[in-house]
Design brief:
With 492 residues, the protein is of the alpha/beta class. The chain is built from 16 helices and 18 strands. The relative contact order is 0.10.
Length: 492
């Protein structure tokens, strides 16, 4: 994927001047060694500045990690640490910052070899708050060399998303469709997050599409589509138009990304798209998302934002689905009950017309959009990629602005069950523990739209930390039965 940041974290050790400097030096070296032995060593740069004890040392360390190309920072308390210098280090670094600290190694070294970083982390957090400096502090920030190496590896997906957002432009086409206010949210929070937004008319897109008629690259794209679809290429006559549209979007991205490195798209797909373009864009949306350029349906700007975050965290294709319909009782009774430990209320179907990458489908076929074809000629609704979503772990999530410009989010982990959907579109049978209560007390209670981003794997821990770092105070999740939601009736 060429639309994702590559994170290189700088490891900088700090030291309080009344503690042995060698503690921080030796412990830093041990952390770096443990990381290189277990993970990709290219992701971590060990700052050779001997130690940061003062403000001047802090400046030297900043210049060094910047020269090394680091876009994330790990501040490591090898001992108690200098409260001012370490906090200024985080304040003046242009990128996400993590704080971790050293645990004591042995009972035989608790005199001259005691570092008290357990205590120093408290003062570090206090001083970060005093200066309004954001930093990621993991759940267990004090540990051995190997434990700190593991915490750094857990930080990288969080850092990747934060770096990506700082250089993201979302390109949208057209206002949200009529009767689709659910995806219409204020864009003010995009700017607060550092994200740029370019809003265009679908007429601009149509003009660009027309200008790509006869593009000499179309046959090559058609061939690539044919290879991807294989036996599922049931509508070969529509592929040239879809290829023309794909090239239109890719060329638009390159011409309009401006000074931004990364791009996501919020696209228009109805009501007039089909009759004017002569197809639906679902399959092209799926292909771009598979390339690492997330495309949301129905001009869902915060859906595109969520998809991009999920792509950064997972380094994989994501999708955007409707939290769509209940699982019929007969399917639950025959195919789910007794095989998995899920109640009927834990299950639902996630669906969209045909926007999920073929890499994430158990099987796929190019078809027409059945819902749109109920009121339009079938020939203008060709272009969906239909198939059941592959079974496996998933994370359902969304970052959203409310109507009064507050950021909210939710994260819920679950799985796609290997159960035939017997339906149409890009669709799967999802199971999330306590989904019924989560649906009522988070999705409904907090006014989330029906679109949710889906990452393929369990990434709840990283996504939760991304949202915390962004300052989201209200992060919903699927709470276990023994944890009552604030609005949940205790007598229900």
């Amino acid at each position: 994927m060429n639309n994702l940041p590559v994170v290189k974290a700088g490891l900088v050790a700090v030291s309080r001047d009344c503690f042995p400097e060698s503690l921080s030096v030796d412990r830093r070296k041990a952390v770096a060694k443990a990381y290189r032995e277990k993970y990709d060593g290219a992701s971590l740069y060990e700052c050779p500045i001997c130690i940061v004890e003062s403000e001047l040392h802090m400046v030297q360390a900043l210049e060094d990690v910047k020269a090394a190309g680091c876009n994330a920072l790990v501040v490591y308390l090898g001992n108690f640490g200098p409260e001012i210098a370490e906090t200024l280090l985080a304040k003046h670094f242009d990128g996400p910052v993590m704080f971790i600290a050293a645990a004591e190694e042995s009972g035989s070294s608790l005199t001259q070899g005691r570092g008290d970083a357990y205590c120093g982390m408290l003062n570090a957090s206090y001083n970060l708050k005093l200066r309004n400096v954001k930093a990621y502090i993991p759940e267990n920030p004090v540990g051995t060399a190997q434990e700190c190496a593991d915490r750094i590896e857990e930080f990288l997906p969080v850092a990747r998303a934060l770096v990506g957002l700082s250089q993201l432009k979302i390109i949208s086409f057209g206002p949200r469709p009529l009767n689709f206010l659910a995806c219409n949210a204020p864009i003010k929070q995009l700017y607060n997050l550092g994200v740029e937004i370019e809003e265009n008319s679908e007429l601009d897109l149509f003009e660009a599409f027309k200008n790509h008629e006869g593009d000499e690259r179309i046959p090559d794209v058609v061939k690539d589509m044919e290879e991807e679809l294989g036996e599922g290429n049931l509508k070969p006559e529509i592929l040239p138009k879809l290829a023309q549209y794909e090239l239109t979007l890719l060329d638009w991205v390159e011409a309009h990304r401006g000074y931004r490195k990364y791009v996501a798209i919020a696209g228009k797909c109805w009501p007039a798209f089909q009759t004017q373009f002569g197809f639906v864009p679902c399959y092209v949306n799926s292909r771009l998302t598979g390339m690492g350029i997330p495309v949301s349906c129905e001009v869902d700007i915060y859906g595109a934002l969520s998809e991009f975050i999920g792509t950064c965290v997972s380094r994989d294709a994501v999708t955007l689905l409707d939290i769509n319909n209940t699982v019929p009782g007969d399917i639950y009774e025959t195919d789910i009950k007794g095989t998995w430990d899920y109640s009927h209320g834990d299950t639902f179907m996630g669906f969209h017309c045909g926007n999920t990458s073929s890499k994430k489908l158990s099987f796929c076929a190019m078809k027409y959009q059945m819902i749109m074809a109920r009121s339009l000629p079938e020939e203008v609704t060709q272009g969906t990629l239909e198939g059941d979503i592959k079974p496996g772990d998933i994370t359902f999530f969304r970052l959203q602005s409310t109507a009064d410009c507050r950021l909210t989010a939710y994260v819920a982990q679950g799985e796609v069950l290997p159960v035939a959907t017997r339906s149409f579109g890009s669709i799967g049978i999802f199971a999330i523990p306590e989904m019924g209560r989560f649906y009522r007390h988070v999705l409904i209670e907090k006014n989330f739209p029906h679109h949710g981003a889906v990452a393929f794997g369990h990434f709840g821990k990283a996504l939760f930390e991304v949202f915390k770092y962004l300052g989201v105070e209200d992060i919903g999740f699927n709470q276990p039965r023994n944890m009552r939601y604030p609005g949940e009736n205790p007598f229900a």
